[in-house]
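Replying to the earlier thread about multi-chain prediction with a worked example.

Input:
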Amino acid sequence: NAGVMQNPRHLVRRRGQEARLRCSPMKGHSHVYWYRQLPEEGLKFMVYLQKENIIDESGMPKERFSAEFPKEGPSILRIQQVVRGDSAAYFCASSPGHGPTYEQYFGPGTRLTVT
Amino acid sequence: LAKTTQPISMDSYEGQEVNITCSHNNIATNDYITWYQQFPSQGPRFIIQGYKTKVTNEVASLFIPADRKSSTLSLPRVSLSDTAVYYCLVVGGTGRRALTFGSGTRLQVQP
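Result:
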């Protein structure tokens, strides 16, 4: 069973461009979470989605950021008009259920660099 | 949301037992205590989870006293490959499924 897959692993964008980060959850997992990690800091929750629905977006910046998890295909985190402060590692996690005892399986992350 | 406090860093030598203690004074009745491990340039990996008393798996043990206001992750006989950041998290009580990561404990294992 393949783990959580994220692509690209590294992404370089110029200020003002759009960044699209993809996450394919583990097989059978319908719950996806996105986190952002700045250097030397812990991960910060951004958004939680369950197939076609955003369940919790309390950690998402109000502007420029959006996420989706369509019925078919990977979950996408989109950052429009990127700025230098968006440079970070973005991790996706998935779980098979939503209870507290369901562990979240993390992908390898996408490292976004904004120049 | 229960806040967790753990040491910023710890040093150890190969073959020693390492104990990392985390305090979570405001833990709620429905909360679980969960530990994750993160290597550089990788996503976090689940280590162990418990609610009370002691839990043991092939990787670690988790000790939780009766008042549940703290917990201790025990890593037996560490090796160089255990060098990583270890995060203590409190999960579940409010119904939120998002994990709240603090700064973690940076464990450095030396030969």
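The longest strand of chain A covers residues 43-50.

Feel free to reuse this layout for your own posts.
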